[in-house]
Each structure stands twice: as structure tokens, then as C-alpha cells.
């Protein structure tokens, strides 16, 4: 253990510093601070701020510039200021911060110990209250990646769910769906939710925004309606429509999950246990009773083969059974994008075309959505077994699902973002005659992001060809949309370099 | 892997921000930056800065305050500005930073793979060039703490040494000593070096400053002479005196070690392999051929028992043999502080008293130093076996060691720091008659730090009693010295609460 000096000194006046430091709480003091000597912090980079019994941990930075922070002041970066929630000028005491007590359990985990439920709860609470530094979060994740017992996993899921909002619904069946991700254009949620709600099953859906992909369901739904609803607003929408399609950011479900993900992602940590803890803690907090999970399987998808898919499925089922959530996993085709559009506005167009039964609507998006909705409808005890698909099709074909979608859009409120398609366009052409043999999902995602998605709602890629389609040399494979000239140039150059499409030409031999 | 957008945009003009962000490179851009849209960085917190082929990785923060950083500017915190070393106003391009390539090897290590020498080298080079974030450093350390093969350890030691300055000496014997630490007042190095150099063996010693203890050898030596020498200055001192006693900070031996330690310490990671890699990489870089390692063994020391000491010794010997460094480990008494003073000025006083053969000089510090020096002198092939101790005693008693110490002090240059003893003093008294049964090293370290050491050179603790000494109730056990009133109050209150001394009273029974 580190030996901390016992120090309490005169308090400092809070000053707000316009620095967005993300997840990290940052505090700034003067090198000539009245309250403490900057040198004391040689070896400690975190401080504990206290005011009226309220405590905040922050990473310390030191300045020599009195105009930034004077000797009697303490600067707080925007996130720290928001989280501490005390007015400018309030007097705060500053001491070197000891590590959170729960870090002893993390050290035990590093040494190979199995943690108790109480230890998991303590860790998750400290995580959710921003008390862990990045390196401490990494320590927990990596020691857990090595080995997590099933008892630890259950304790982790419960602690993560209970650390934030726990939604309670009166209905005996609360349906939910989740896709483990990775497939461009896969916006089935926005079709499944209105079908299921139109049938009369409750489906209060929260979604995430894209972090590394060109669109999350929340980004795409935002083209059609407001998505930044809080818990009360969400409940109102669900009460009136039977479902919703909102961003989870203001509902605070499993807040430790977002913090863990922010470290898992740059480290590319991706164990089955961590995926299950992330998804199941959010679903437990959301009050779901019946959960359908979409596992796209394919060479560039998250799950590469059936054996991996089975192990992951069993883990989801085990955790679901423990918490009384009926979990069903369906393996789907993850070899290529779903639908035509990739990017928020293009995907929203596809979704509305399917809901509106337009003749040109993408058949694969429609079929996959019907299939997933069918699974959820089968949870209805009043529905005759095996008729889920027919009922879903009926609700879609009759326009009932579209009507419910319009009610949800009205209840959530009108979209406030610009979502016309990017007017800088370029068509990417086939370089040979033949048949589309494969489409690289990772490449297509990257090109769509380069074009500006999801920040520019109308940027992205519009696909004209799918696997198995015949093309002639010079025929367009897809169109790039962008707003921004330099992003457009980069996306076009990127597509020329590698379009993501492989064409098999049987005349010239091609792949075996 | 994360999909990064390909983005290159207009360059930004460098501006310097007076923020000491420690190890971390921090860059600040405006939310309305000309060069890139802040939202692009949702999900990436690190950026790559380029100018004339020079590259720096930095953590990104975003500001809304144009007076801090305007749309055409890029702010660099002090360490980033220093490391990038380009003038204010220089134009720099900014792109989202991909993780260093060597992180793939770290991911392999997390999954239990054994790393190749080339992978270890790549990791260490990225570490030494500040390309790893805190969480990435933690990922490497924790995955290595789980299992490090002997081949990996050797590759790590070599890579760490080769990443910085590699000192070369012409002498066939280059002696060095190291203590694994934890014992207050243990300043034998400052007595051993002049004895060994006076004998004629070369001993170019670099030391560290205290991070969590009340003094490092560099802090204590700084009371007597300048210690912040660079490589050329160090070589001059060693050439003229046969040895030196400097701070390693400007010599850049095994720079990755300091970075690893800065993460190991807050996480309290402390595996034998990490300790061996840290020490042996520095000694290999320092050009040592013969190394003596002091293992204090005791209940509050780093090595708690003989079994642990043996495992660690074997690991040091194995690595030493591989690199052709003759390693000798001696277990020493680590049950209590060595000498009387704890804190830079008090320790320097003890050291000079021993070198000056003053009657009141602490006998334990003298004896331990003679014993360690004897081991090093035995490396001299010209010395008759078994006469090392007698020779060390002769060099000390004759004043030859003191003379060499004065040469070293003169060659390094006069001290420039204030080092009079703190004038706020308090004596901590025995609360009972009896015999001193134990002294808690951790507690004494903490009290000395609370009193202001090592920042205030003259602050600390002056011990009057050691284990086995008889005391009467009311007799002083030690004196606290401080400059600063509030630190003084805290240290005195801390000592009253727990003096760190246990007194055994045989009249009233005492411990069995």
C-alpha cells in the first residue's frame, strides 16, 4: 500500500474550466496553491475533493498560470464540475486520494482469487461513481478476462443493474431485443418494435449511439424523432404506444457498463463474460422479462462460427434463467450488410420503406425483421403456437406497424436534426463482369464513417448490389453520400483503393 | 480492432498551455476547430500529432473557450510541448490515433500467449516513447503479472535497457549496489560508494528520488551536493573520483521502467518478475559488471521471509548470469530503521558522522555499510579472499572514504537546497517503562512524510531508541522536525495516535 501523508489545508474556491475531459474528472491547482504544495503530489495523481460531505475523485493537473487558476482556486473540468454540482466559488477541501477500498478486491482478482458478491458490488459502485482511474478499470477488466466464475458473473450482472435506474413495469410480459452488432444497416429494431407493440406486447426499447460504427439504432431513430428522453418521458411514451425507440443515455441503465465499455473498446477486450454482463445488466435494469438476442454469424461478424455462438448462447441462457428473464438466441446471416442504406438517414429511409410496404423496400431487412418479430410474438400466451410469423406479417402488411411507428414518433417528439442526404455523391463501379462473391462488413463500415456517418446524418453508403447479384463491368456497386468535401475525397479514394466487394468471374477462373 | 475514419485536415498552430500533466501528453482543441470536428473523436480519446515526420501521441481534451484555444490552434500541455519540442505557432496535423501496433502483442498476452523477443522490444519501445495510455500500460503489466516466462523476462530486461542510454566503461570491474527498499534511514549507499571508490574499484551509482517514502538516496545526497547530472557530467565525476552518487533522472537509463513504475505503484502491483526487470534493466544499462543486492527481511519489509527471499534471489542470479553480470544477494535485518535520522538532512547527518568516525555515529549504519562494502571489495581479484571487511574498515577508519566522499561532493558541485533542520520540533515520549519490542517501518515512514520529508529536506524523524533498548516512562523515543505548522500539527497528532513503537513491560506481563 502507498503511504499517504495526512494533510488537511485551507479550502479552495471552485472555478470552472471549459475543458471537456470525457469520462475523466480533472482538477487543476496552482503550483503555488494556498491549500497544498504541488510537490506533495509527486507520486499521486488523484485527489479527493470534499464539500458538505460530498466527495469527488479527480485526476490532478498543475498550472503555473495564475490567470488560469490562482493560488486560492481549484479548477474543475466540465465533466467534474457537472458531476460535483456545486456553484462556482464554493469552498472545497483537497487531499491526496487513496485508491478506492474495492481496489483490494481487484488486486485479489489479479492474484487469481474468486470475488464474493459483496466485493463485486463494491467494485461496481465505485466504477459507477467515477472513482476508478483508467488504469484501475483496465486492471479489473483484464484480471476478469483471465477467469470469471459463473457466480462472479451473476454477482456482476446484479451489481451493474442495481447501480443505476431499475425500471419496473406492471405488464407480465415485457419484451426486448438485442443484436450483438457488427453488421452494417441492420436496423431491424425499428421494424420489430412497432410490430410487437402493434400486437399489444410491451416493448420499451433503449438503444445506444454508434461508438465505432457508422450508426447505432439511436442515431438512426433520431432522424425520425427525438430520442434523448428521460425516464418519466420514456414511461409516458410506453404507456401510450406500448413501446418506444429511445437513446439509453438519459435513462441511466447500468451506468458502470458505459464506463467498462469505454476501456474495453480501445483495448479490444471482448470476452463472452464481459459481453453477457454488459447486455444482461442493461436488460435486467430495463425490466425485461422476455429477451430475443440476434447473433449475426459470419467471417467479419462478432461471432465467427457455430461453436462460438453456442457457448455464448448457453451463457446468456444461464444468466437469463437465474434472473427470471426468458432468453432466446437466434443465429442470423452475418455475411453481408442488411438492407441498402448505411448511415442514419439512409437506414431510416429503408426502415420507413419496409414499414410503408413500398415496392422497392429491401426484402432482406423485411424478412429478417419479420422473423425476429415472430419470435417475440410467440411469447404471447394468447397466440396459437407457430403463428407468430403470420401475425407479424399481418401487422406489417396491414399498415398497423406503420401506424404504431407514427404514434411512437409523435409521442417522442419531432426530430430536430438535419437529415437530408449528403449532396456530394460518387458511384463506385464494378471493375469486372461477374457475380458478387463477398462484401466486407468492416470495410463498408469504415468507408461510411469516413464519409461522415454518424455525425452527418445524411452521410453514408447506398448499396445497389448484394452477394449473388450479377454485375457488368462499369455498373455501380454503391453510392457514397457526404457533406464535407475532405471527408468525401477520402471516402472516394478509400473506396477506389478497396471497395469492400469481391466479384467472382467464372470466365477467368475466379476463386475455387 | 477499432475502425478509424481516414481524416486529414488543415494543420493547427501550436500553443503552449501551462498545465503540468505528468507522464501524460495532453492536447487541447476547440470544439469549433478548423482542423477536425470534435465529434469525430467520440470514442477515441487519443490523437496523433505530426510535424516534419515527427509524431507525438496525446490524450485529447476539447474546449469551448476561444481564449484558451482558438479554432486554428492546438494546445499542448507542458510535458507534451517539451517532448514534441517544436516552437509555438508551428503548424501540426492532427488525426485520430490508432493504438500502437505492439498492443496486438499485449492482447495476445492477455489471452495467455507467450511473447517473442521482437514483440517485447516493440512494446518497450512504444512504452519508452509515451505511446501507451495508462490503461494500455496497465493491460501489459497485469497480463504479465499473471505469467512471465523466463525467456520473456530476459527479452524484457534487454529491451528495457536498450530503449535508453547504455553506459559503457573501460574498467573490467564496474561495481554497483541496490537495495530493494522499504527500510527508513537505510542510507548505506552513501557510505559504501566512497569506501569502494577509495579502494580503487569503479562504482558509478545512480539513485532514485523518493516516490512514496520520506527520502531516496538522491534526495539525501542532494543535501550535500548537486545530483541532477547528465551523462557527460556523470562520466567526468566517475573518471576523477572512481564513483559518483547522482540522481538517475537525467541519465535516461531504462526509461520504460519509470513509466511502468508509475502504473505499478498506484495499482500496488509487485511481482518478482517486475522487480527483477526494473532493477536489472537499469543495471544492464548502467554498464554494471558486479552487482550486490541488499534484501532487508522483516515483517514490515518488502521481503517477509526466507523462502520469498530465496525465490527472488534465484531470479536475480538467473538474469545476471544471462547478461554476464555477477549478482550477489545478501539478506539483511529489515525489522527496524537503520541509523537515527529519517528524512534527507537527518540521514545526511548520520552518513557524514559515520564517514567522519564521529563517536556518536550510528553503529548499525556503520556496520551494515562495512558489511556491504566488504562484499563488493571481494570482487577485486587482487584482494586476498576474506579480507574485504578488514579492508573496508581500514578505508573507513583511516578517513580515506571520507576524503573520497569529499572529492565526489566537490566534483558533483555544491548543494543548492535549503537543508537546515526543521525548527518546529516535538519529542514523542515512552508511555511506559520497558524494552522496545518492535518498530513499525511503515508507520515511521508515514510520520516522517507527514512532517514534510522529502520535500522539506530538514523535516523528518530523529530516533533515540531502537529494538532492545530500555526506556523509562516519559523518556523520549524520537523527535519530529518540521517547517510547516500544519504538517507539524498533523505529524504530532499522528505520533500521539500511534507512535510506531511497541514497548514490552515484563513487570506487567507484556507479550509472550
Most extensive contact: A-B, 71 and 71 residues
CATH architecture of the largest domain in chain A: 3-Layer(aba) Sandwich
The CA-CA distance between the termini of chain A, in Å, is: 62 Å
Portion in strands of chain A: 15-25%
Radius of gyration of chain A: 25 Å
What are the key terms here?
homodimer; 512 residues; alpha/beta; Pyrimidine Nucleoside Phosphorylase, Chain A, domain 2; six-stranded mixed β-barrel; four-stranded antiparallel β-sheet
Describe the structure concisely for a colleague.
The structure is a homodimer of 512-residue chains. Chain A has a six-stranded mixed barrel. The first copy, chain A, is of the alpha/beta class and 512 residues long.
Account of the protein in words:
The structure is a homodimer of 512-residue chains. By secondary structure, chain A is an alpha/beta fold. The first copy, chain A, has four domains: 12-96, Beta Barrel (Barwin-like endoglucanases); 103-147, no CATH class; 175-411, 3-Layer(aba) Sandwich (Pyrimidine Nucleoside Phosphorylase, Chain A, domain 2); 424-504, Aldehyde Oxidoreductase, domain 3 (Alpha-Beta Complex). Chain A contains 17 helices and 18 strands. Chain A has a six-stranded mixed beta barrel. In chain A, β10 (290-297), α11 and β11 form a beta-alpha-beta unit. In chain A, α3 (117-128) packs across α9 (255-267), α4 packs across α9 (255-267) and α6 (189-199) crosses α13 (363-377). Chains A and B meet through β4, α2, α4, α9 and α16 of A and β4, α2, α4, α9 and α16 of B.
